[in-house]
Write a structure and sequence with these properties.
Order of helices and strands: HHHHHHHHHHH
Largest sheet: none
Distance between the termini: 69 Å
Shape: elongated
Keywords: Membrane, Transmembrane, Transmembrane helix
Number of strands: 0
Protein name: Rhodopsin domain-containing protein
Oligomer: single chain
CATH architecture: Up-down Bundle
Strand content: under 5%
Structural class: mainly alpha
Organism: Aureobasidium pullulans (Black yeast)
Pfam families: Fung_rhodopsin
């Protein structure tokens, strides 16, 4: 760390780290979305469209994060306090777009699950959940931003915003709780999906594990909230630089959102699921562009030991409907 003429040590800040983190997250988001579009080009569906919308929303979030960087985020607070109004405006925009993009990614997972079983079960549950998640996303974005004008001070200076943005820490706690609960529901739904499939329990477990690649979003959300709570206690006994601390929150938001979007592609990639010997996800039969097949999970129920089109696309599983 550099020192001034008096010998005091100054923190260089996290501006470079923020720039690198946003750039990496942006790159991975675009790569995985493009890979998904390429893999699904012959069976493009509603879930793919939703993923594209989630990616666009994520691009807006990354743009606002870059705007925060330009406004001084990542530098020591004393260096940017004269430009705090602009930084606060972009910080609010970054928080709102993060939440909206995150919930659109969740909705993409719901649409994917609904598309899988649309031919065998009533999709009413998923329609209700999609509507609920839409409401939760919009409500969460409103909760964290309502009544917090940029003119009143830096948005992430939670400890100093008691009057200008009351209950800001509690708002983020509610947002994170809803985030974790909604993710937990997405982890339970695949169990419900395979419960009535006629296949060995081991293969059911493998399918569930494939969907559970999105599990890390829960600890990422909790870690983000932990660092957010630090912003509410930035006074005594151990004061922190609010700009530097909020930079870490911004980085964690980018990481959480990026992984949520990546997991949407991982759970639909045939190459990925083939690694679990399930053949689940990308297999489809000609003319079945609007539905997925649960492939290669029927065990010995298929006659002929696996010939014909099954060698390329796998066999459709048998789903008990009664």
């Amino acid at each position: 760390m550099p020192t001034d003429e008096s010998g005091l040590v100054h923190h260089l800040g996290y501006a470079d780290s923020l720039n690198v983190a946003i750039s990496i997250c942006l790159t991975y988001t675009l790569i995985f979305t493009c890979v998904r579009i390429h893999l699904r080009r012959s069976s493009f569906g509603a879930d793919d469209v939703v993923v594209i919308f989630a990616t666009i929303a994520a691009m807006v979030h990354f743009a606002t994060s870059y705007a925060c960087l330009t406004a001084g985020l990542g530098k020591a607070y004393d260096m940017i306090k004269n430009n705090i109004g602009q930084l606060s405006s972009t910080a609010v925009a970054s928080a709102v777009t993060f939440i909206l993009a995150l919930y659109i990614a969740k909705i993409a997972a719901l649409v994917f699950l609904m598309r899988i079983q649309s031919k065998t079960r009533n999709p009413r549950l998923y329609v209700v959940l999609i509507a609920l998640y839409t409401i939760l996303g919009i409500a969460s974005a409103i909760v964290v931003s309502a009544g917090c004008p940029s003119s009143s001070g830096y948005y992430w200076n939670i400890a100093a915003n008691i009057d200008s943005c009351p209950g800001e820490e509690a708002r983020w706690q509610v947002m994170t709780a809803l985030d974790v609960i909604s993710e937990a529901i997405l982890l339970v739904l695949p169990v419900h999906l395979v419960w009535s499939l006629q296949m060995p329990q081991k293969r059911k477990l493998m399918i569930v594990i494939t969907f559970w690649t999105r599990l890390p979003t829960i600890p990422l959300s909790i870690i983000r909230q932990t660092y957010t709570s630090h912003l509410a206690s930035s006074s005594s006994p151990h004061p922190v630089d609010i700009s530097l601390a909020s930079t870490l929150v911004t980085i964690l938001m980018a990481i959480e959102l990026t992984y949520a979007l990546i997991s949407c592609t991982l759970t639909t990639s045939k190459n990925f699921t083939d690694g679990f010997s399930t053949g689940f996800g990308m297999g489809h039969m000609p003319g079945a562009a609007e539905s997925y097949n649960l492939s290669a999970v029927g065990g010995g129920s298929s006659s002929g030991g696996g010939t014909g089109t099954g060698s390329k696309w796998g066999y459709r599983s048998q789903i008990a409907t009664g």
